[in-house]
């Protein structure tokens, strides 16, 4: 009994230490928020330049470490698009060099996956080499960068929605909640099939633009990280409406190339 009490006391002390440690990290989180605000303001003022491409560019990403690659591949197959992917996310791919600056990877049964050292130059060169490319899907991209997307898709975790997470290093979010207003589509993974979807949409709607569409998929984090996911994205509702929505958004995007 004494040993049990000692273990409980140690656990309470350890929990208190973690709480104090997080409290000490809040100034760093505030600095991170200011950094993000400054970066976004520099893009708004066009001090940091961003460009649009003649072909559609789709962002699939999040502000937290979410399993985006499975959904990115699904989008690629849906549109017949080329995928731009960060090198650290790759495994089991064959790399080829294109004129020293851009790289692309051949995935045996999913077409071509593309990566570049410099995003703008790499994508420009790819489009010159492959003008028939219908679209570019950029994995793990959502924050404002030197490329402006035609569509932005935000990936959120049912068990840890973005508006309940904190800024890094207190939490895992590396973006401001208000930035999710830029999302055209939000996909919530790990959703239990019998969830009250109307209530979940209502909670998310407080942080989204009125026109943002919300979709739910039952795939877990582990399933979305699997290399052989393919077309096994399991929409709980509105699966048939997803593809027409994306294609309609692309038709109405009409980006102005620079």
Q: How would you describe this structure to a colleague?
A:
The N and C termini lie far apart (73 Å). The protein is α/β, with parallel strands linked by helices and 258 residues long. The relative contact order is 0.17. 36% of the residues lie in helices and 17% in strands.
Give a nutshell description of this structure:
The chain has 258 residues and is of the alpha/beta class.
How are the strands of the biggest sheet laid out side by side? 3-4-5-2-6-1-7-8-9
Return the average pLDDT rounded to an integer. 80
The shape is globular
Low-confidence stretches: 4-18, 97-102, 106-110
Topology order in helix (H) and strand (E) letters: HEHEEEEHEEEHEHH
- Tell me the quaternary state: single chain
How many beta strands in the DSSP annotation?
A: 9
Largest sheet: 9 strands, mixed
* Proportion of strand residues: 15-25%
What's the N-to-C terminus distance?
73 Å
- The number of helical elements comes to 6
Class by SSE composition: alpha/beta
How large is the radius of gyration? 21 Å
**Helix percent band:** 25-40%
Task: From the structure above, extract its key features.
258 residues, alpha/beta, nine-stranded mixed β-sheet, 6 helices, 36% helix, globular
Task: Give the helices and strands, then pairings.
Elements (H helix, E strand, L loop, with lengths): L1 H43 L12 E5 L7 H11 L2 E3 L9 E5 L3 E6 L3 E6 L2 H11 L6 E4 L11 E7 L27 E5 L7 H9 L7 E4 L4 H4 L14 H15 L5
Parallel strand pairs: 1-6, 1-7, 2-5, 2-6, 7-8, 8-9
Antiparallel strand pairs: 3-4, 4-5
């Amino acid at each position: 009994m004494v040993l049990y009490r000692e273990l409980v006391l140690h656990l309470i002390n350890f929990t208190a230490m973690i709480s104090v440690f997080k409290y000490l990290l809040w100034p760093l989180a505030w600095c991170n928020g200011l950094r993000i605000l400054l970066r976004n303001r520099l893009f708004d003022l066009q001090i940091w330049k961003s460009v649009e491409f003649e072909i559609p560019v789709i962002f699939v990403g999040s502000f937290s470490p979410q399993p985006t690659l499975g959904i990115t591949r699904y989008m690629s197959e849906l549109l017949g698009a080329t995928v731009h992917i960060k090198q650290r996310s790759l495994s089991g791919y064959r790399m080829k060099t294109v004129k020293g600056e851009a790289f692309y990877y051949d995935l045996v049964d999913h077409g071509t996956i593309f990566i570049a050292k410099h995003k703008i130059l790499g994508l420009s060169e790819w489009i010159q080499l492959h003008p028939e490319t219908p679209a570019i899907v950029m994995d793990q991209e959502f924050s404002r960068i030197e490329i402006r997307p035609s569509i932005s898709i935000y990936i959120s975790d049912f068990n840890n929605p973005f508006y309940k997470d904190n800024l890094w290093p207190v939490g895992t979010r590396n973006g401001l909640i208000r930035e999710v207003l830029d999302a055209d589509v939000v996909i919530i993974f790990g959703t239990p099939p019998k969830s009250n979807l109307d209530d979940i949409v209502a909670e998310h709607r407080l942080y989204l633009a009125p026109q943002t569409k919300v979709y739910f998929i039952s795939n877990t984090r582990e399933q979305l990280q699997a290399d052989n996911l393919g077309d096994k994205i399991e929409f709980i509702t509105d699966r048939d409406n997803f593809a027409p929505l994306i294609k309609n958004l692309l038709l109405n995007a009409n980006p102005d190339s620079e």
